[in-house]
Protein 1
Amino acid sequence: MKKLLFLWLLCSAGYLRAQQRPNIVIIVSDDHAFQAIGAYGHGLMQTPNLDRIAREGVRFDRAYVTNSICGPSRAVILTGKYSHKNGFKDNHSRFDASQDIFVKRLRTAGYQTAWIGKWHLETKPEGFDYWQVLPGQGQYFNPDFLTMDGRTIRKEGYATNVITDDAQHWLDGRDKDKPFCLIVGHKAPHRTWMPDTSDLGMFDNRTFPLPANFYDKYEGRYAAQHQDMSIEKTMRLGYDLKMLPDTGFGKGFFTRMTPAQRARYDAYYKPIEAEFLRQKLSGRALTEWKYQRYMRDYLSTCASLDRNIGRMLQYLDDHDLTRNTLVIYLSDQGFYLGEHGWFDKRFMYEESFRTPMLARFPGVFPAGSTINEMVMNLDIAPTCLQAAGVEVPKEIQGESFLPLLRPPFQAGRKSMYYHYYERGEHSVIPHFGIRTQRYKLIRFYDVADRWELFDLQKDPSEMHNLYGKKGYERITAALKKELAELAAKYEDEEALGLLAKKI
Ligand code: CA
């Protein structure tokens, strides 16, 4: 606390003299694992530009999402409300864009607003002076965009570069007398992890160590036993790993490439494919080969993301905007890089529940700080409203994290509430739960009613379900009570109904 106050006093003096309504830039990536960001210290790759945000701003080490999946997370970011309140519970939903979102309030207060890139909320954006979004999941190469005048246009290039170009183009043409709120939505590094042609092969000299629980047998964890998101069984050689791409599902990802792009891809992947076919791998050797290919493609896709974030930071520097712009970087959720043998997300286990989040607010956030308070994607909307001096409506369920980072340096929430709904791809059973500093209690339902309890201090990898074990009766009862209180606080009637049912 004293260190934060000291850092804050050092950085705040100039800002307070020149204070004006800040600009806001939010960069939302898709499926970016905190394990793949240099600043988080996992050593998988270097990300100098994301690290710059952490160095000049703050790194959140306990940032989480309310529902670990793409569309629902964006709906939570926009509304500051849980999925059951904003209506977008799973990726089969359609967002009611007429509802209250923080961007509309900023616009009413005089901000120029734009969303560019991945949107994934199905309905057209509302509340933005400008938008240009990918239809659905979008494409990595030569992506199509939906435009405000109802057309669909195709832009040649690699999605992460094209989206950044479009964001800068919008900034060039904005009214410079008004503050702005720009949200940049990246497709990267979402499945199928297609690297930019310039990044192919950049990790070929690396062999990535298997996570300690790569061969998890899921003992005592029913839902983990029944998922369909493992590198061994679910990950596809063609669709995901670009072997034999001329056949089967995902063919269109390649046929839409220009001849030059395709030639670069073939020059890189065809020799790998030939060697793979020659080896005739099976069993663990095949699974581990898939893991290495996954990591190389995924991290190469992240390298482009990091470079383009660098381009955005450089743009702010070049246009004298850095000093008065709040920059927030986050993913729509975390992602598994082989932990539990998985890729994908959805579960309330740490790697997918937690998201990377970095923020820079010169003169306000103490530079180079690490924040251990629990924050959520739910908090973005009230934080941005408060930063802009706009009243936060009482219906918003998130809490601004500004008071955690500047005097009075309040303590954050004591526990977090989570609810995942989707019944579909990857067969993750719906669940809701609570995480405190030390414990996590999860209630699975629908397909199977099950409880899970983890002591995150003793078992950070969540391998040992302690629910029903002797000695955990008191903590289980306390957590159930707190879970019910949170479900009541957030008015999650479905969860309250399930909690009323004894299992
Ligand atoms: Ca996602």
Protein 2
Amino acid sequence: MEFYDYEARLNRPVKVKIPDFQTGERLNHIIFADQLTRTTLERLTRTADQIRVLAKSSEGARYLNDLLRHKRAMLYFTQPSTRTFLSFMAACQILGIACSEVRDPSTSSEAKGETPFDSMRMFSSYFDIVIMRSRIPQFAECCAYMMNDLRQTSRRSIPVVNGGAGADEHPTQALLDIYTIQRVLAFYHPRDSSHWTLFDELRERYPELRKGIDGKIFGFSGDIRRGRTIRSLATLLSQFDGVKLYFISPKHPKLALPQDFRIRLLNRGVEVREFHAFDELADGEPVIESLDCLYMTRIQREHNRPEDEEEFREIDFGKYRLNPKLVARMKPYAPILHPFPRDAEFGEIPTSIDNDPRAHYFRQARNGMWIRAALLAYLFDVDATINDYYANYTREVRDYNMSAL
Ligand code: NCD
């Protein structure tokens, strides 16, 4: 198989492709953020919440660890990755899935001329799922088509999960981003009581404030065009009601919001605005002060061409660095997120911000482990089993506590 074998399928609009990645109503391959509907998101976040509670007790952890002992996963990551790779591996470990990895194709038979497609077909012989990241754009999508063709001819076929493809998609990062946003904007506080809640306190200052994602303003700063995590997250957010997406980037066409994506968001009824500094005004208020959530990104320098280096010299990149003074002006509840890695040399988020209560990027990375475990549980069809076990488990804990009274 070669790329051109899939060309006709690759060139279709996303909406038309989506049924190809499902078996009936159920998602089988995870390739695009657009596959993740609000219903699926709710299902995954519920399971993730349950897994994180169960994993805390040895009984719950043992239960989870027994669920998928008969499954094996291949982590095929030929492009650099720390968090996506490790959190998928940890997610597999939580559910008892055995993992293997290929990270450097020069140590596999690809060094002897084997095509990545043949490698993939081999993985499907030994494993039950492939989670992959490749520098070849659309490769994960092609692999999903290959698996569909194998199934058509009654041969072994396994789910493909895209862990970051080219510049366009990173659907599972968007999942953990949205999971984090939902948790923060639920405004629960460990000290909430019948006398005081964080939410009530915030409402005194922001009477219009509502819980949840609907109606909120999301700011994205940095390398908007080349950041695949931004595309995937903005796609998920566009499903919510009345969200506003503010993109803050240099004016350069290689870094700013691309026109096709802007149109796609507008067609979904999202309010899209572009800015070039945190201090520009949005409805009379500086952008930085108006945001309900700020998603920072690094400038993806590894994609620079020599002519870009030349042109980028004109840009004042300092405008896309956060500092404690800017953070102090943000809404007190607005989370600061970053898909990581942050670029220490560039300094889009200096470490002096890490202890601010709004800095959620480390929690965000940990959430990746829980939501990816939920995704794997869903793909292997054990999430409903977890939901049932959890209901019994919490009932037992409650009964025990009641009897101790
Ligand atoms: C991102 C990626 O690889 O797209 N990292 C990640 O998966 N958390 C972001 C980046 O590389 O800047």
Protein 3
Amino acid sequence: MSHILIIGAGGVSQVATVKCAMNTKTFTKITLASRTKSKCEAIAKFIKERLNVDINTVKIDADDTKAVVNLIKDIKADLLLNVALPYQDLTLMDACVEAGIPYIDTANYEHPDTAKFEYKLQWAKDSDFKSANTMALLGSGFDPGVTNVFCAYAKQNLFDEIYEIDILDCNAGDHGYAFATNFNPEINLREVSAKGRYWENGKWIETDPMEIMFKWDYPKVGVKDSYLLYHEELESLVKNIPTLKRIRFFMTFGQSYLTHMKCLENVGMLRIDEVEHNGVKIVPIQFLKTLLPDPASLGERTKGKTNIGCVITGIKDDKPRKVYIYNVCDHEECYKETGAQAVSYTTGVPAMIGSMMVANGIWSSKGVFNMEDFDAKPFMDELNKQGLPWEIIEMDPNSNRIVK
Ligand code: NDP
């Protein structure tokens, strides 16, 4: 019996809100609030037509903590799911502390003016959440999110000690555009154009963007070029799995995407600082976002699959072990069910499940937490029920050969 307040009405919100409306035993009331109310109303209309569930819609500026506190109190929300942008994480966390309700998000805080991806400022709010007698659950998307839960499940059930993790993120979807991003273009392009970084033998090693590439055979997708990126779950997993000797993150990109990105970068379109254009100040990457297709509109035209998972190496009963835990998701099936493509789906479903874990008190504590801080099993069970089933493959510990 919970009233969930969902903030943000983009592609991820479309899926998270639809999934909450499919789980009305947990989410007895849903309020969807965002900057542009018409986007909330479009999601509400979809839910009414598909599921015959009514949800409330509200206009809100998530940068205005006071307004959010007032809204939480007015509607008597029990928990807040932030699927707006990473820029809003801190103001929304502060609102939850003031109102004394749990906070859930899918991406770590970023300041619009600095491409820094770190949990520092969010972890620093641990004592605020403890004093307010409530909790924050950080990074409940797919990566971060499900990837952390896969690692936690392996640590809790499959290994005595974990030594190496490679997180492998493949989107083999085709939307037919020469260039488009599958989630918010500004956030996506900041992430993939940043320096690469991985952790080995106790220290971080920096690489140039896209410097390290390897080919991986993704089950049900095929062999894809996979590039090393820095990704935020590396930071919390290094902290929470102290036996780790190495952790890396790889994402697939096609040559066309990389060529477009390089050109945009070369002409300054990925700049995040202000420039003056005809007497008007603009931020080039924000202007580019205006020109690119809205990710929420890609659903109808995207075909193909995603495959995201973790290859984990360590020991069990004194013997070396290597497992591959992954999920495969089909863009067209996601669209049929929720009106959104698989990148929004693989983020929105875990956002709902994380909220469900908190709403039902299955994951319950005081303070600020990452996904791997809790028992992974109930979350893994829900993934199977809510549309993101996973597989575990046993691999030869000394090669990439599948054993069973
Ligand atoms: P979109 O850009 O499609 O949607 C963002 C929504 O937030 C829009 O409706 C936007 O409003 C709203 N918004 C932005 N600023 C404010 C504000 N100040 N006040 C109120 N509402 C605001 O993004 P996505 O749906 O693609 O992504 C949502 C989140 O999911 C992002 O944080 C992204 O980083 C994260 N993500 C996480 C992944 C994971 O696996 N962990 C993967 C993919 C995404 P408006 O419509 O007016 O612009």
